[in-house]
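PROTEIN DESIGN WORKSHEET
SECTION A - STRUCTURE
LENGTH: 272
C-ALPHA COORDINATES:
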Protein backbone atom coordinates (compact mmCIF):
# COMPACT_ATOMS: atom_id res chain seq x y z
CA UNK A 1 0.00 0.00 0.00
CA UNK A 2 1.37 3.39 -0.99
CA UNK A 3 1.24 5.69 1.97
CA UNK A 4 0.54 9.36 1.47
CA UNK A 5 3.80 10.38 3.17
CA UNK A 6 5.75 8.48 0.49
CA UNK A 7 3.98 10.01 -2.51
CA UNK A 8 5.80 12.90 -4.18
CA UNK A 9 4.24 15.17 -6.82
CA UNK A 10 5.79 15.51 -10.25
CA UNK A 11 7.23 18.81 -11.44
CA UNK A 12 4.02 19.96 -13.12
CA UNK A 13 1.96 18.94 -10.12
CA UNK A 14 4.29 20.84 -7.78
CA UNK A 15 3.93 23.98 -9.89
CA UNK A 16 0.15 23.70 -9.96
CA UNK A 17 -0.05 23.01 -6.23
CA UNK A 18 2.26 25.95 -5.49
CA UNK A 19 0.09 28.26 -7.63
CA UNK A 20 -3.19 27.05 -6.14
CA UNK A 21 -3.12 29.08 -2.86
CA UNK A 22 -2.23 32.26 -4.76
CA UNK A 23 -5.04 31.69 -7.26
CA UNK A 24 -7.54 31.09 -4.46
CA UNK A 25 -6.37 34.24 -2.63
CA UNK A 26 -6.79 36.36 -5.79
CA UNK A 27 -10.16 34.79 -6.48
CA UNK A 28 -11.37 35.42 -2.94
CA UNK A 29 -10.28 39.07 -3.19
CA UNK A 30 -11.98 39.51 -6.56
CA UNK A 31 -15.26 38.06 -5.29
CA UNK A 32 -15.18 40.10 -2.07
CA UNK A 33 -14.34 43.28 -3.98
CA UNK A 34 -17.12 42.69 -6.48
CA UNK A 35 -19.63 42.09 -3.69
CA UNK A 36 -18.68 45.27 -1.80
CA UNK A 37 -18.61 47.44 -4.92
CA UNK A 38 -22.03 46.10 -5.96
CA UNK A 39 -23.43 47.46 -2.69
CA UNK A 40 -21.36 50.66 -2.66
CA UNK A 41 -19.55 51.65 -5.89
CA UNK A 42 -17.47 54.22 -3.98
CA UNK A 43 -16.17 51.67 -1.45
CA UNK A 44 -12.41 52.06 -0.88
CA UNK A 45 -11.69 49.06 1.29
CA UNK A 46 -11.48 46.51 -1.53
CA UNK A 47 -10.91 48.44 -4.77
CA UNK A 48 -11.41 46.75 -8.13
CA UNK A 49 -8.42 45.31 -9.99
CA UNK A 50 -8.73 48.08 -12.60
CA UNK A 51 -8.43 50.71 -9.86
CA UNK A 52 -5.36 48.96 -8.41
CA UNK A 53 -3.72 48.77 -11.84
CA UNK A 54 -4.35 52.48 -12.39
CA UNK A 55 -2.69 53.24 -9.04
CA UNK A 56 0.29 51.05 -9.91
CA UNK A 57 0.71 52.87 -13.21
CA UNK A 58 0.44 56.23 -11.47
CA UNK A 59 2.97 55.42 -8.74
CA UNK A 60 5.40 53.61 -11.03
CA UNK A 61 5.41 55.24 -14.45
CA UNK A 62 4.05 58.76 -13.91
CA UNK A 63 6.38 61.34 -12.30
CA UNK A 64 5.06 63.10 -9.23
CA UNK A 65 3.76 66.57 -10.09
CA UNK A 66 5.42 68.16 -7.06
CA UNK A 67 8.85 66.52 -7.03
CA UNK A 68 9.15 64.97 -10.47
CA UNK A 69 10.16 61.63 -8.92
CA UNK A 70 8.78 58.21 -9.75
CA UNK A 71 7.43 57.52 -6.29
CA UNK A 72 7.57 53.71 -6.20
CA UNK A 73 11.16 53.72 -7.46
CA UNK A 74 12.17 56.47 -5.03
CA UNK A 75 10.54 54.77 -2.04
CA UNK A 76 12.08 51.41 -2.97
CA UNK A 77 15.62 52.75 -3.31
CA UNK A 78 15.42 54.70 -0.04
CA UNK A 79 14.03 51.74 1.92
CA UNK A 80 16.49 49.25 0.44
CA UNK A 81 19.39 51.55 1.30
CA UNK A 82 18.28 51.78 4.93
CA UNK A 83 17.72 48.03 5.06
CA UNK A 84 21.08 47.23 3.48
CA UNK A 85 23.04 49.42 5.90
CA UNK A 86 21.23 48.13 8.99
CA UNK A 87 21.40 44.46 8.02
CA UNK A 88 24.98 44.79 6.79
CA UNK A 89 26.20 46.26 10.06
CA UNK A 90 24.26 43.61 12.01
CA UNK A 91 25.84 40.87 9.89
CA UNK A 92 29.36 42.14 10.55
CA UNK A 93 28.92 42.69 14.28
CA UNK A 94 26.83 39.55 14.75
CA UNK A 95 29.36 37.37 12.96
CA UNK A 96 32.39 38.64 14.89
CA UNK A 97 30.75 38.63 18.31
CA UNK A 98 28.89 35.37 17.69
CA UNK A 99 32.03 33.49 16.69
CA UNK A 100 34.04 34.82 19.62
CA UNK A 101 31.20 34.21 22.08
CA UNK A 102 30.72 30.66 20.90
CA UNK A 103 34.41 29.72 20.84
CA UNK A 104 36.17 31.59 23.64
CA UNK A 105 34.94 30.82 27.19
CA UNK A 106 35.96 34.22 28.63
CA UNK A 107 33.99 36.06 25.94
CA UNK A 108 31.04 33.72 26.45
CA UNK A 109 31.10 34.27 30.22
CA UNK A 110 31.18 38.05 29.67
CA UNK A 111 28.63 38.51 26.89
CA UNK A 112 26.27 35.51 26.79
CA UNK A 113 23.88 36.66 29.53
CA UNK A 114 24.03 40.27 28.35
CA UNK A 115 23.17 39.23 24.80
CA UNK A 116 20.28 37.09 26.04
CA UNK A 117 18.85 39.98 28.05
CA UNK A 118 19.23 42.50 25.21
CA UNK A 119 17.54 40.11 22.77
CA UNK A 120 14.43 40.16 24.98
CA UNK A 121 14.00 43.94 24.70
CA UNK A 122 11.27 44.75 22.14
CA UNK A 123 13.12 46.85 19.58
CA UNK A 124 10.03 48.91 18.77
CA UNK A 125 9.74 49.88 22.43
CA UNK A 126 13.04 51.77 22.24
CA UNK A 127 12.18 53.54 18.99
CA UNK A 128 11.28 56.80 20.81
CA UNK A 129 14.61 56.61 22.64
CA UNK A 130 16.44 56.22 19.33
CA UNK A 131 14.64 59.21 17.82
CA UNK A 132 15.48 61.30 20.88
CA UNK A 133 19.11 60.17 20.85
CA UNK A 134 19.87 60.16 17.13
CA UNK A 135 17.22 62.53 15.80
CA UNK A 136 14.66 61.89 13.10
CA UNK A 137 17.19 61.28 10.31
CA UNK A 138 18.58 58.12 8.79
CA UNK A 139 20.72 57.11 11.76
CA UNK A 140 17.82 56.23 14.06
CA UNK A 141 16.20 54.04 11.40
CA UNK A 142 19.42 52.14 10.71
CA UNK A 143 20.14 51.73 14.43
CA UNK A 144 16.65 50.32 15.00
CA UNK A 145 17.22 47.62 12.37
CA UNK A 146 20.67 46.90 13.81
CA UNK A 147 19.50 46.68 17.42
CA UNK A 148 16.49 44.62 16.42
CA UNK A 149 18.31 41.79 14.66
CA UNK A 150 21.93 41.71 15.86
CA UNK A 151 21.20 39.90 19.17
CA UNK A 152 19.49 37.09 17.28
CA UNK A 153 22.42 36.73 14.87
CA UNK A 154 24.88 36.68 17.76
CA UNK A 155 22.94 34.05 19.70
CA UNK A 156 22.35 31.88 16.65
CA UNK A 157 25.97 31.90 15.51
CA UNK A 158 27.30 31.38 19.03
CA UNK A 159 25.13 28.30 19.36
CA UNK A 160 26.26 27.04 15.96
CA UNK A 161 29.90 27.48 16.96
CA UNK A 162 29.32 25.47 20.12
CA UNK A 163 27.85 22.69 17.96
CA UNK A 164 31.08 22.27 15.98
CA UNK A 165 32.43 18.79 16.82
CA UNK A 166 34.92 19.25 19.63
CA UNK A 167 37.19 16.72 17.99
CA UNK A 168 37.97 19.23 15.24
CA UNK A 169 39.15 21.78 17.79
CA UNK A 170 41.22 19.19 19.66
CA UNK A 171 42.88 17.92 16.48
CA UNK A 172 43.74 21.46 15.40
CA UNK A 173 45.33 22.19 18.77
CA UNK A 174 47.23 18.90 18.61
CA UNK A 175 48.69 19.99 15.28
CA UNK A 176 49.80 23.27 16.88
CA UNK A 177 47.10 25.64 15.65
CA UNK A 178 46.68 28.87 17.59
CA UNK A 179 43.31 30.31 18.60
CA UNK A 180 43.44 32.68 15.63
CA UNK A 181 44.23 29.84 13.22
CA UNK A 182 41.38 27.75 14.62
CA UNK A 183 39.00 30.66 14.07
CA UNK A 184 40.16 31.31 10.51
CA UNK A 185 40.65 27.73 9.31
CA UNK A 186 37.92 25.80 11.15
CA UNK A 187 35.24 28.09 12.57
CA UNK A 188 34.83 30.80 9.93
CA UNK A 189 34.38 28.44 6.92
CA UNK A 190 31.64 26.57 8.76
CA UNK A 191 29.94 29.68 10.09
CA UNK A 192 29.71 31.70 6.86
CA UNK A 193 26.81 29.60 5.48
CA UNK A 194 25.20 29.72 8.93
CA UNK A 195 25.46 33.50 8.79
CA UNK A 196 23.48 33.53 5.56
CA UNK A 197 20.78 31.42 7.21
CA UNK A 198 20.67 33.78 10.20
CA UNK A 199 20.31 36.81 7.94
CA UNK A 200 17.52 35.11 6.01
CA UNK A 201 15.63 34.50 9.24
CA UNK A 202 16.27 38.10 10.31
CA UNK A 203 14.93 39.74 7.15
CA UNK A 204 11.31 39.56 8.31
CA UNK A 205 11.95 41.45 11.57
CA UNK A 206 14.29 43.83 9.74
CA UNK A 207 11.50 44.81 7.34
CA UNK A 208 9.14 45.24 10.29
CA UNK A 209 11.51 47.64 12.05
CA UNK A 210 12.15 49.53 8.82
CA UNK A 211 8.45 50.04 8.06
CA UNK A 212 7.73 51.08 11.65
CA UNK A 213 10.52 53.67 11.66
CA UNK A 214 9.51 55.07 8.26
CA UNK A 215 5.88 55.27 9.34
CA UNK A 216 6.75 57.49 12.30
CA UNK A 217 9.46 59.77 10.94
CA UNK A 218 10.38 59.84 7.26
CA UNK A 219 9.79 61.82 4.10
CA UNK A 220 10.17 58.88 1.73
CA UNK A 221 10.26 55.12 1.82
CA UNK A 222 7.82 52.27 1.43
CA UNK A 223 6.58 52.46 5.01
CA UNK A 224 6.19 56.22 4.80
CA UNK A 225 4.08 55.96 1.65
CA UNK A 226 1.80 53.27 3.11
CA UNK A 227 1.03 55.29 6.22
CA UNK A 228 0.66 58.50 4.20
CA UNK A 229 -1.90 56.85 1.95
CA UNK A 230 -3.70 55.49 5.01
CA UNK A 231 -4.85 59.02 5.80
CA UNK A 232 -6.77 59.08 2.51
CA UNK A 233 -7.98 55.46 2.69
CA UNK A 234 -6.11 54.85 -0.59
CA UNK A 235 -6.21 51.07 -0.54
CA UNK A 236 -5.50 51.06 -4.27
CA UNK A 237 -2.00 52.30 -3.39
CA UNK A 238 -1.54 50.54 -0.05
CA UNK A 239 -2.27 47.04 -1.36
CA UNK A 240 0.28 47.20 -4.23
CA UNK A 241 2.89 48.61 -1.85
CA UNK A 242 2.32 45.75 0.59
CA UNK A 243 2.56 43.27 -2.28
CA UNK A 244 5.75 44.97 -3.50
CA UNK A 245 7.35 44.77 -0.05
CA UNK A 246 6.44 41.09 0.10
CA UNK A 247 8.01 40.51 -3.30
CA UNK A 248 11.20 42.36 -2.33
CA UNK A 249 11.50 40.34 0.87
CA UNK A 250 10.95 37.08 -1.02
CA UNK A 251 13.44 38.10 -3.72
CA UNK A 252 16.12 38.97 -1.17
CA UNK A 253 15.57 35.61 0.50
CA UNK A 254 15.84 33.95 -2.92
CA UNK A 255 19.15 35.72 -3.60
CA UNK A 256 20.56 34.66 -0.24
CA UNK A 257 19.50 31.06 -0.84
CA UNK A 258 21.19 31.21 -4.24
CA UNK A 259 24.36 32.66 -2.71
CA UNK A 260 24.40 29.89 -0.10
CA UNK A 261 23.85 27.23 -2.73
CA UNK A 262 26.59 28.53 -5.04
CA UNK A 263 29.16 29.36 -2.38
CA UNK A 264 28.58 26.59 0.15
CA UNK A 265 26.95 23.77 -1.77
CA UNK A 266 29.27 21.33 -0.02
CA UNK A 267 27.40 21.99 3.24
CA UNK A 268 23.84 21.78 1.94
CA UNK A 269 24.17 19.15 -0.77
CA UNK A 270 21.23 16.81 -0.70
CA UNK A 271 18.77 19.06 1.17
CA UNK A 272 18.69 22.41 -0.60
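SECTION B - SEQUENCE
RESIDUE ASSIGNMENT:
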Amino acid sequence: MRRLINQRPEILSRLLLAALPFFLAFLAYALASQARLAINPTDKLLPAWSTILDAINRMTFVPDLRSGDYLLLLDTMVSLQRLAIGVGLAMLAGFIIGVLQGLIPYVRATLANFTNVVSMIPALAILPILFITFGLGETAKVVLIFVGIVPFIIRDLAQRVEEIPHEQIIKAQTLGASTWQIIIRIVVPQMLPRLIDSVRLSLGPAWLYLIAAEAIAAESGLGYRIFLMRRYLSMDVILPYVAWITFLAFFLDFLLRGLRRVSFGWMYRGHM
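SECTION C - NOTES
Residues 179-216 form the longest helix (38 residues).
The CA atoms of residues 197 and 256 lie 8 Å apart.
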